[in-house]
Amino acid sequence: MMKSFKTDWKANLKNPQTIMALFTYRFGNWVYYRVKSGLIRKPLWLLYRIMDVLFVRIVASGELHAEAQIGDALHLPHGLNGIIISPKAVIGNNATIFHQVTIGGRNNLGEPVIGDRAFIGVGSKILGPITLGNDVNIGAMSVVVKDVPDNASAVGIPARNILRDEPKPENTR
User: Which of 14, 84, 105, 144 is deepest in the core (most CB within 10 A)?
Assistant: First the structure.
């Protein structure tokens, strides 16, 4: 928990609201997945729920459920302002998520799985049981309902995939 929080701290150094919201998430995630004893878990979960309402929902104006699985160094440049992340969503390491983004289920089919180093633009909606690969860019205001492969961008409503032409490193022997 503390290792992940330290990476979150470094990624969001200038925003104390975001740091408090991410600490609340990391604490709740630790209680949900790691604390097994009911005697200890119940009061810690109650503490988490109080912190969630105060710091995440009221102060930071977002939803960041403890059940979600989020990798290290989550960067929220504009804070949690309007961001909603579903309880069953999975987000990789070093993701950047701008404000007013929704990452959630669609028609009770499942939630998104997002790879490492994803860049999710302002107001985007990522919905349903889809997979976003590593190093993807999601354009502002896009609605993503289909898989996005590694090293691709998705833009539009509904989003279209645009593969990026990245130069491949030459093998030197």
Answer: 144
